[in-house]
Amino acid sequence: MAIARFPSIVIDCPDPGALAKFYGAMLDWKVDVSSDWAEVRAEYGQCISFQQVDGYTPPVWPTQELPQQMHLDVIVDDLDAAEAAVLDIGATKHPHQPGTSFRVFLDPAGHPFCLCVN
């Protein structure tokens, strides 16, 4: 028997609503925003939550000057099309691209995430 259930991932950020809207647009998930907390939720229940942190400092990747601590990998069918779409909703393409089957981006709060084809 499990000790606990896994309801969501929580990501620190300066503006939970803005980050939830970004990930909601990217994943086509429902967005729910309150004053210092927001979440995006898939129809099948998976959830990513965002909490406001005063004095938030984004990670610096690929160095460990300010460690990334975590990042999300999302699967896409077409890297070029997905890149254009995430840039359009506020992502930034990172200049360091260490692979060919994935691309590294920063979300609006500076967290790295990868678009992956496999």
From TrEMBL:
InterPro entries, per database record? Glyas_Bleomycin-R_OHBP_Dase, Glyoxalase_6
Domain Glyoxalase-like, chain residue ranges per copy? 8-116
Q: Tell me which domain of life the UniProt entry assigns to the organism this sequence originates from.
A: Bacteria
SUPFAM superfamilies in alphabetical order = Glyoxalase/Bleomycin resistance protein/Dihydroxybiphenyl dioxygenase
The record's section on Pfam families has: Glyoxalase_6
Q: Can you name this protein?
A: Glyoxalase
